[in-house]
Amino acid sequence: MSDVKNFINGEYRVSSGGKVFDNINPCTGALIGTVQEATYEDVDAAVQAARDALSGPWGKMSDAERGEILHAIADGIDRRFDEFLAAECADTGKPFNIASHIDVPRGAANFRVFADAVKNVATEAFQMATPDGNGAFNMAVRKPKGVIAVISPWNLPLLLMTWKVGPALACGNTVVVKPSEETPTTTSLLGEVMNEAGVPPGVFNVVNGFGPESAGAFLTEHAEVDAITFTGETRTGEIIVRAAAKGLRDVSMECGGKNPALVFADCDMDKAIEGTLRSVFANCGQVCLGTERVYVERPIFDEFVSRLAEEAGKFTLGPPEDKNTDMGPLVSHEHQKKVLSYYDLAVAEGANVVLGGGVPDMAEEFSGGAWVQPTIWTGLADDARVIKEEIFGPCCHIRPFDTEEEAIRLANDTAYGLAAAIWTENTSRALRVSTQINCGVAWVNSWFLRDLRTAFGGAKESGMGREGGEHSLEFYTELQNICIKI
Ligand code: NAD
Question: Would the ipTM clear 0.90, i.e. be above it?
Fold first, then answer.
């Protein structure tokens, strides 16, 4: 049995209020262990430690020195790869073959990429005339913003948390992380790596707990937090933006999506099927960038639907360690309840269920797990709730379209604007369509292909601000102009 502790000022601490909550294995429903729930006093201690560390050795280091430490953190994750892999898969139920290729390597890469990015970004300088004829120089310098609160979700716990901690530390900030209550283990484990890599105490802190009236709210409402970076649901994001308004603290919001895929008749069908299979079902559909609405040009609609259903119907559902597993369970029973409620709603709203729609038959040992079937619908009206609301499960609705204009209109008919996938072999069309879709990330003939130097974020209700490459440095630093009169 594990006991996941808070990590404050370089050391592991139990809850000062003696409070713990359960960590459940989503494959079986069995107890993995307990998690120490941070009280307000614990969160306050973490924030104070982070504040103090800003003026300690960390605050005096050069970018290059901090960069070396960030590389040591990445090396530390690589060295303990198997531990991170086992912990991530136990908390989430996701297959080893996904987490070993995506979650854990990206967890390490997030430190290396931003350590190097900081070294290579210039700041602006302007020379100006003055009435006395001598002139002046303006020179910008970047300074850390201070104490950053990192609030992360459960779908890609290590990857999404390090996506924020990496650049925050590279820029010289200190952090207090509140991982999702569903998946706390790898964030806590990272504390050991930080100590081994020589990160000074107080630079990286972890507090465990829930959102409202718990560690999440204590942290985001704390006056000594200078900025908040959040990944999670849009409605939670709204609450956090309200908390950040007090004291005008800066926010970065990476929120939900209801992402479209547009499949044109001139696509490479094999590529479109393979890509859409991944974009709908990867990580059991629990990817913010995942596709939940598929629009297919009418001449290839029937073939596309039957091929996608045939391929998804072959998925093997199973536990992480089984090499044959294509899809794991959902993260929790609570989330399973939510996804199944949409499976029922789809039928009530008049969907034709092409595949799945319920709970799969699993072996006895997995009967307590949060399993759902991969599911495909057709036939829903454009204003159905299943088309409008983010489900975050292994499911999609497929609808035919007749013209490019119609496809673009349907893709944009959503409150969200995170990502889109466009499948066509016509480059002019690819450019024409992708630039007309109101979203942060548009993929053409691919999905989830990420260059960490590029801007990442959402339009509309999918978020505020951009992270990635130089854009992360914008958020994690305060740009100061120094004007020097000659
Ligand atoms: P969530 O909003 O329920 O929780 C996210 C985090 O916020 C958790 O750590 C939670 O404890 C915390 N939290 C909840 N209420 C809070 C409050 N009042 N104050 C402070 N903290 C609070 O999201 P989730 O269910 O963990 O994650 C799934 C959601 O995340 C989906 O909507 C998905 O689209 C989104 N997501 C977005 C991106 C992106 O990059 N845009 C990436 C991954 C996931």
Answer: yes
